[in-house]
Design goal:
This protein has about 100 residues and is mainly α. It has a single domain, classed as 434 Repressor (Amino-terminal Domain). The chain is about 60% helix and about 0% strand. The longest helix has 25 residues. One of its GO terms (cellular component) is cytosol. It comes from Flavobacterium album. Keywords: DNA-binding. GO terms for molecular function: DNA binding; DNA-binding transcription factor activity.
Amino acid sequence: MKNYDNINSFDELIEREHGAIGMESRNRYEENSQMFIISEMLKEARREANLTQEQLAEKTGTKKSYISKIENGKGNIQLSTLIRIFEVGLNKRIGLTFL
């Protein structure tokens, strides 16, 4: 069992659980975290637009199953497709930040 004494921040907890930035476990954690965030943003934006997955897929030239995979964090998505889904399908702008 891991010792959680002397942990004072979320970053310290993540490092204890998944290792330092650049380690394989940490990279997997970060990738999964980003996919979860994207999936939740897509679900929220689609619901705000009062669209079903099928309607969004039709507007963006994709399939309902593809939208579903993304919303469930299971799809591997290309940036161009992500932009099309948000900008064409949901009338939302995407901004990227690299840290």
